Amino acid sequence: MPDSIDAASDWIAVLADVHVGEERPHMIRHQGAPELLLAEAVEKIQQIGIGKTFLLGDTVNQGWDSEYTAAKQILEPIRSQVEPILGNHETQRGSFDDFQKSWGIAPVRQTMAWGMPALILNSAIEGLPDSKWHGRLDDKQLQLVQEFLGHHGSVPVAIFCHHPLKQTVRASDEPMLGLDNSDQLRSLLARHNREVLFLTGHTHCQSIVQRDNLICIGCPSLCYWPHAFLVGERMGDEIRLSTVKVRDDDYTPDSRASGAEQLIYRAKNEGEVEDRRHIIRLK
Question: pTM for this structure?
Answer without folding.
Answer: 0.93
